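task queued by scheduler; priority normal; single chain, no ligands, no partner chains; default sampling; output format set to structure tokens
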Amino acid sequence: MKKVLQIGTLLLVASLSLSAATFEQLPESVIQGRLHKYADTNRERETELKTLFTEAGCGSLREQQVHKLLPNVVCVLPGETDSTIIVGAHYDKVENGDGVVDNWSGASLLPSLFESLRGQPRHHRFIFIGFTSEEDGLLGSKYYASHMTPEELAKTEAMINMDSLGLTPTKVWVSHSDRTLLGDLEHVARQFKLPLEGVNVEEVGTSDGESFAKKKIPRITIHSVTQDTLPVLHSDRDTMDAIRPKDYYDSYKLIAAYLVYLDANLGTKPAGYSK
């Protein structure tokens, strides 16, 4: 069996304010309801994701065609500037199991995060992307990253990737995450008293954040995989029963607060921080 490396409680602490970290916290029933709307085929999942974005109020929803594959699903939340934060999760699944954990757990959070942030003006532009064909070699995220213009690359401050949430309390891929983004995530978790641990998963596989790292965009991958839960992925055990509802809702709350924190603080780092 492939191994995941448990890092334990993180020790990086950011020293910036959380005073501006306000957002609309959606009820757990909404978060769980969207999670329950997984579908059996990738085409149906793409359709359902667009429906959820529309229900969440996204007025700038579009498809990005990826060769002859299903498209990436893109929703933009405008900001006061063109500085951009990308939030992504793949919506496709493998044949085995229902693909609830891997990765409808991440994809179905995208509309909820959009809805949580849209109620107040944001400094950054947020681009929420449901990636196609991650399971076939990160094809959707590679296509998106490779088609970004030099101007778009320069304006993109961070890529936040969500993959396989809800198996356990929130985890982060430490060794493949930008150090500043990592410190900020731990700071938010501490302030909101939400659990967060580091678990490296490079021996398991890869994830969409790596497509952006190759373009020199700082990235972080948030997940829930441990050595004990790894066998759920790509198996018939990947069903709704594998999700721990409280852990999943905690992950939503942490990521929503984190995005608002990044919006207020990215680009205003004190000396010693790097992009």
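post-processing summary
- The longest helix spans residues 245-265.
- The longest strand covers residues 84-90.
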